[in-house]
Amino acid sequence: MQARRQAASGMMSYLLGQAMVALCLIGVGSCMAHGSRLTGFVALIFILIAGLELLQGFARTGVLLGKLRHAAARVTVFVTQKQAQLHGRRNIDPDFGEIRFDHVDFTWHAERPPVLRDCDLVIGRGQHIAIIGPSGAGKSSLVSLLLKVVSPTRGRLMIDDHGYEEFDTKALRRQVAWLSQTTHIFTDTIRNNLCLDGLAHSDDKLWRVLTQAGLADTVKALPEGLDDWVGEGGRTLSGGEGRRLALARILLSDAPIVLLDEPTAGLDAETEQQFFRTLNDVTAGRTLIMVLHRLTGVEKLDSVWKLSDGQLSAISTF
């Protein structure tokens, strides 16, 4: 859909540009035919240049508008969801067992085909699983369901014998340590960027998770260490360093469920494998759900599932 919009916007910009060139040539011909001064010709050239510069942004603007409308539609789906579906009254037990998808369908738009279709999946307490699939396969929708941002269109998402709709949303999310594909670094210190939960974690614990995330040496080299200021949007850190800082946040959490959406995006291959080796150890006994494009081969997993065309299928069990 986005590719079609980009192609249409590009074609429109091209046609308008050619039309402006044609009009300018007609104008130049008219000036010459009527013996007009050179100033008229120069003015037309400037008009052509200004018009072409204006048109250059049309294609990009059209694509951005399409993305904005798509994002707004998703927000609208969330806002218009029935409150009973999103806010239950049951407080979640921190020692709850399995998570189960029971013939789950989901669509963002009622008039379009489901993004997820008849998904059946059981994740036992303490299991480590990976869900792999290409972009557009429905992985982000599956994450949204797990975080109770949206509810199934059909079927049920359950914890033990209780539906997701029965649980208080805030209570449920407190049991999930989530790392999204987009890393946000706040204009604050390293320490405060780690302690987003509002708890006063000890320096030893902060250094431990920084070491596990492969960022300790970088932070130690900073003039103020943990209290060094991170610039706006994390501009004092590289992209990979910012990602590792976000990984350290997740490792700092004691939540029983760890949900990682492309956790090593932006990391080099060596750091990626090092992180997964560490993850195998620090998440022992906790439920780990990873949504990935591919596997590195060093993950210790109980099962691997492929999400393709909105459907889940088991491809490996260890």
UniProtKB/TrEMBL annotation:
Q: Which UniProt keywords apply?
A: ATP-binding, Membrane, Nucleotide-binding, Transmembrane, Transmembrane helix
Q: Which residues form a coiled coil?
A: none
Can the keyword Membrane be found in this entry's annotation? yes
Residues crossing the lipid bilayer are 41-59
Entry keyword annotation includes Nucleotide-binding: yes
> By its UniProt entry, which InterPro entries does this protein fall under?
AAA+_ATPase, ABC_transporter-like_ATP-bd, P-loop_NTPase, Type_1_exporter
User: What's a Pfam family in this record?
Assistant: ABC_tran
SUPFAM superfamilies with a match to the protein in the record:
P-loop containing nucleoside triphosphate hydrolases
Indicate the segments forming the ABC transporter domain, all copies.
99-318
Protein name, please? ABC transporter domain-containing protein
Q: Which organism is it from?
A: Sorlinia euscelidii
Taxonomy, top ranks, is: Bacteria, Pseudomonadati, Pseudomonadota, Alphaproteobacteria, Acetobacterales
